[in-house]
Amino acid sequence: MKTVVFAAVMAVLLLYVWERVDIVRVGYHVERLKSKKVALQRERDELRVKVSALTAPERIARAATEQLGMMPPRQGQVVLVRVEPTAPADAGPPMPELRLAKSEVGGRMP
Q: What per-residue confidence (pLDDT) applies to 47?
């Protein structure tokens, strides 16, 4: 009878110790995840700043002129085309105006 009681007490004691160790292990895991979350949030913020800097209109205009040799269109290069709708006016939203730029590559129009 004493051995059964001793075994039951030992089982309860081992269960208690295992539960406490598991709680500590889960706590460490939670802390690791929290620090990873902070690092990922910091990286996200840095990437947002980088995207903002890379998509700035001034930077794009500078890259277009310096790296690609582009320039703003000169007077007369932009042609305004008006498209008349063929369907009734109540068929949907009006069509926007189209602006086309003439290309003078090689002195000829494509």
A: 97
Q: Are 79 and 102 within 8 A, CB to CB? A: yes
- Return d(Cα 1, Cα 7) in angstroms, integer: 10
Identify the band that residue 87 occupies on the pLDDT scale cut at 50, 70 and 90. low
- The DSSP output letter for 101 is E
> What's the CA gap between 75 and 53, in Å, rounded?
31
DSSP 93: S
Tokens of 43: 């990286």
As a whole number of Å, the end-to-end CA separation of the chain is 103
22-70: pLDDT as tens digits: 999 999 999 999 999 999 999 999 999 999 999 999 999 999 999 999 9
Residue with tokens 């105006």: 97
Of all helices (H) and strands (E), which one includes residue 44? helix 2-54
CA-based torsion, 30, 36, 39, 40: positive or negative:
negative
